[in-house]
Amino acid sequence: MxxxxxxxxxxxxGELFSDEISLAVSDTEKYIYYRPSKRIDLKIKPGDPIKExxxxxxxxxxxxxxxxxxxxxxxxxxxxGMAVPFFHDGQIEGCVTAIYPALA
Length: 104
What we know:
Helix content is about 20%, strand content about 35%. By secondary structure, the chain is an alpha+beta fold. β4 (about 80-90) and β5 (about 90-100) form a beta hairpin. The longest helix has 11 residues, at about 5-15.
């Protein structure tokens, strides 16, 4: 089997989630991947810095899974999300974030 690129792998993982869920992957400082959903788009671009107040920032700084509602002041759109940090050799390397639309 040929080796998959990181982006190809993330696209496949994104397909496992509903069309309602956006997916973001970051290192400890910036986003490296973003797949918007049909219902919510935070307009994140690879290379954008992780904003303070986001669940990605909270997961990285706390070094643990975070599930929370984020109000519209952060991205202009309210959302629910879950962010899970990932580690390599005991050092935090980033996190994966699932972004759900806020129910009205």
